[in-house]
Amino acid sequence: xxxxxxxxxxxxxxxxxxxxxxxxxxxxxxxxxxxxxxxxxxxxxxxxxxxxxxxxxxxxxxxxxxxxxxxxxxxxxxxxxxxxxxxxxxxxxxxxxxxxxxxxxxxxxxxxxxxxxxxxxxxxxxxxxxxxxxxxxxxxxxxxxxxxxxxxxxxxxxxxxxxxxxxxxxxxxxxxxxxxxxxxxxxxxxxxxxxxxxxxxxxxxxxxxxxxxxxxxxxxxxxxxxxxxxxxxxxxxxxxxxxxxxxxxxxxxxxxxxxxxxxxxxxxxxxxxxxxxxxxxxxxxxxxxxxxxxxxxxxxxxxxxxxxxxxxxxxxxxxxxxxxxxxxxxxxxxxxxxxxxxxxxxxx
Length: 348
Fold this sequence. Notes:
This is Ornithine cyclodeaminase family protein. The chain is an alpha/beta fold.
């Protein structure tokens, strides 16, 4: 069996920022189409402090496939999103937040791509890169659909791999007035803590999370915080708030007041957010958010009704992370790399 090995450098050489974000917009649209995605995931604690092991599997059907039956994400139905499907994509890995203090990635993962017809393994990709790009790219896709119109200040809470990638991708595909960033490390070390790739971008270090929120039209939380880093009282009217790290019931990057201020609340997949997203679970339990009001991001991407923040209306989006996001990005990287002769072919 021959497989194509794609490193971090191979993946980044294959896809530019616009293509990364496009795969994530497509992933969210597919997730919102009944019958287009079949996926499952599991995770459990390891014996390392705050460590977690996870596994995702997903495949998306193409526009000419027979789309009947029921899938784990979307239930029964017929798809309408045009375009090709994906191979069967598996991601396995671990998350260790303490790695940040060691100077190591908090996520280590491997992605395996299988041919959709034969099931044969055709590629193995750097899963840490796929995870970083798909998570940050997904948040950029949400920002493009929900943020106030026109160039404005984008605030980013966090300064790690995801926060850095979010800034890089946003700067590449969206006009931005400036970025404000804050993290405990930035507070202690200032701009010296920033990734060198941000050196030529209009990035400033905020004095505090409150300062960042008060000066930003879009606020992105790229943290693993178990307690709120954004308070609703700090937000300007008409702000878009995008959360990335509140993917479990015990992680909560925004407070109840922030959830209560939202004129509209979106999630990558509402049914998953209602089970496991910390701010959503807390807001529903407190009675400040109606579970029926949590909308799929696909609805905003399709258009047809007001979605964007502005005019005094605050909008909140929660990203839990979906296997189809890995699948769309990994399949695009694999097919492009194969066509362009990139990567290393290995016989197993």
